[in-house]
Amino acid sequence: MTITIDLEPLSEAVGMAVRGVDLRETLDDSTQDDLRDLFAKECVLCFPDQDITAEDQRRFAAIFGRVDTGNRGNSKKDLKKAATRGEMLVTNIRENGKPIGSLPDGEMQFHSDGAHRQVPYRATTLYGIRIPSTGGNTMFANLQAAYDALSPEIKGRIDELQTQTVYDYEAQNRSTIGSDPDLPRAQHALVKTHPVTGRKSLYLSRLMTEKILDMDHDDSETLLAELFDHAEKPEFVYSHKWTPGDLVIWDNRSTNHARTDFPPEEQRLLRRYTISDPDAPLAN
Ligand code: OGA
Ligand code: MN
């Protein structure tokens, strides 16, 4: 029996809410095909009201590519087993003063996961478990719409440019990125073509794009500032207010995401798996 999927846009900017699928179940091939098509087109999907285990989340993630394994930064020993299977907890919960997961506190500027890798993570899945009463939204910026809206003149100027990206584990905003020469870095085309849809996107972010290569430093900063501001315009952005039970998957090739601030005294806990291209080097 083929199930009926119910769709509703999350916003005018990007994203689709998907109802009518129970992610505790193994989905049939045709539903999996439909979800892959939908994901390529919509870039952000939210499946509300899911009651899923880590294993369910992994099985869902595997529909979209190779689920990453390896230690994803969970620090406590009781999480080690989970961590080696690719699970990462995004949380501010602490034991003995130390976060039990990753990306604990507060606001995070726009970025895309794995931009510091030569082959970035194709997608990220995040499952909401404990959500603060206010704030801690994840914002998604549609980089395809941002590219399309550029003037022909700017498109012509940037089409062939290459950038250097960096992942500064500690940084939550641009002012402190990249001080250490040993941080993981990669080189990327500023304009990327989506391998499934052929659509172009403006592949850059405030938190991870360090500079434009072969360009004077000041010119690079000026152009980047202009493009960051453009890519973060409200008309390209959807702000997702989490409800426990939301499973969100986003495409790191066509969207950026950021996080809004939230009260430090409230707990926030989400479970994350990333997905890579099947032939990408193994992530750790
Ligand atoms: C991530 C991330 C945002 C959030 O998991 O990669 O950026 O809202 N999370 O916690
Ligand atoms: Mn992220």
Give an overview in words:
38% of the residues are buried. The strands form 5 sheets. Strands 1, 2, 3, 4, 5, 9, 17 and 19 form an 8-stranded mixed sheet that branches. This protein has helices at 29-42, 54-61, 80-84, 143-148, 152-158, 217-231; strands spanning 6-9, 16-19, 44-47, 66-67, 88-91, 94-95, 98-99, 108-111, 123-130, 138-142, 162-166, 185-189, 191-193, 200-202, 209-212, 237-240, 247-251, 255-259, 269-276. The protein has 6 helices and 19 strands. Helix content is 19%, strand content 29%. The site of N-oxalylglycine (OGA) has 11 residues, from strand 9, strand 18 and strand 19.
Topology:
Layout: E1 6-9, E2 16-19, H1 29-42, E3 44-47, H2 54-61, E4 66-67, H3 80-84, E5 88-91, E6 94-95, E7 98-99, E8 108-111, E9 123-130, E10 138-142, H4 143-148, H5 152-158, E11 162-166, E12 185-189, E13 191-193, E14 200-202, E15 209-212, H6 217-231, E16 237-240, E17 247-251, E18 255-259, E19 269-276
The protein binds N-oxalylglycine and manganese (II) ion.
In short:
Helices cover 19% and strands 29% of the residues. The protein is an alpha+beta fold and 284 residues long. The protein folds into two domains: 172 residues, 4-Layer Sandwich (Double-stranded beta-helix); 90 residues, no CATH class.
What does the overall shape look like?
Answer: globular
Mean pLDDT: 94
Distance between the termini: 39 Å
If classified by CATH, what would the architecture of the largest domain be? 4-Layer Sandwich
Bound molecules: N-oxalylglycine, manganese (II) ion
Alpha carbon gyration radius: 18 Å
Structural class call reads alpha+beta
Low-confidence stretches: none
Q: Which sequence of SSEs, written as H and E, runs from N to C?
A: EEHEHEHEEEEEEHHEEEEEHEEEE
Count structural domains.
Answer: 2
Range of strand content: 25-35%
CATH class of the largest domain: Alpha Beta
Helical segment count: 6
* CATH third-tier fold name of the largest domain: Double-stranded beta-helix
Number of strands: 19
In CATH terms, the superfamily of the largest domain is Clavaminate synthase-like
Helix content: 10-25%
